[in-house]
Recover the amino acids of this structure.
């Protein structure tokens, strides 16, 4: 039967070093002169902090041994703090906290212990030091405002003010995820025959509602999109391209705008 492992000295050194760096550890003297309730930091010296972490981890190891889960560990009874002087990251600290908590949670006194409080405060502080955390919004909301449609046209360039007309490469680069794509019927000739399914809305613009077999074959590339005849359905299209949501369901409601059927099997 293998010995029950203990958290190593280097691991403890990182936790204590991070606690100092993140101001989650203050000296007992500082704590004594601080107003009551003014800090949630642990009042202990670095050596004392490492020792309490070690003893809680040892208590968990002893509990596992008492349940027949491994042999008694080689005991590190006295902790001596050596600050970590090499570079370390917030992610490493968070992972170190998780590892410590995983290996110590079996301690009978773990819940509410000083070690539990200290490692929790280290984890919260390290999280706030993750790249991008300070710049992120505290209260998140879905983006508001207009989502500008991206369009592609051929020789015929319809006047649709909301559309940012672009080139084939740009349209294809965002084909799957762009919320709204507008393409003229003749510009479908510029797109490859095998296009992946889109997640957003697709509008195909035409000047005539009368289509031949060649035009219908082009429309097979964008089955599920909406065929819009201009200028007859210009007002309806303008409404659809107003404030749009990527998740909005666009339902044709004009006799000159119709759903493009799937290709015949």
């Amino acid at each position: 039967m293998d010995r029950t492992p203990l958290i190593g000295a280097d691991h403890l050194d990182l936790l204590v070093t991070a606690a100092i760096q993140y101001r989650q550890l203050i000296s007992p003297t500082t704590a004594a002169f601080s107003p009551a309730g003014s800090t949630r930091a642990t009042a202990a010296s670095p050596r004392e902090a490492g020792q309490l972490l070690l003893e809680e981890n040892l208590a968990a190891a002893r509990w596992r041994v008492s349940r027949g889960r491994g042999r008694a560990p080689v005991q590190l009874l006295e902790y001596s703090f050596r600050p970590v002087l090499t570079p370390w990251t917030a992610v490493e600290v968070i992972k170190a906290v998780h590892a410590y908590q995983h290996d110590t949670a079996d301690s009978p006194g773990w819940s509410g212990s000083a070690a539990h409080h200290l490692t929790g405060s280290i984890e919260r502080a390290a999280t706030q030091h993750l790249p991008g955390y300070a710049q992120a919004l505290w209260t998140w909301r879905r983006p508001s405002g207009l989502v500008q449609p991206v369009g592609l046209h051929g020789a015929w360039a319809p006047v649709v003010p909301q559309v940012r007309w672009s080139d084939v490469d740009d349209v294809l680069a965002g084909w799957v995820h762009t919320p709204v794509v507008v393409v003229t019927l003749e510009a479908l000739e510029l797109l490859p025959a095998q296009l992946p399914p889109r997640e957003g809305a697709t509008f195909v613009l035409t000047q005539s509602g009368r289509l031949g077999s060649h035009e219908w074959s082009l429309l097979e590339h964008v089955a599920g999109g909406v065929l819009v005849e201009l200028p007859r359905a210009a007002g309806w299209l303008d409404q659809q391209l107003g404030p749009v949501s990527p998740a909005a369901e666009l339902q044709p409601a004009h006799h000159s705008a119709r759903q493009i059927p799937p290709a015949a099997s």
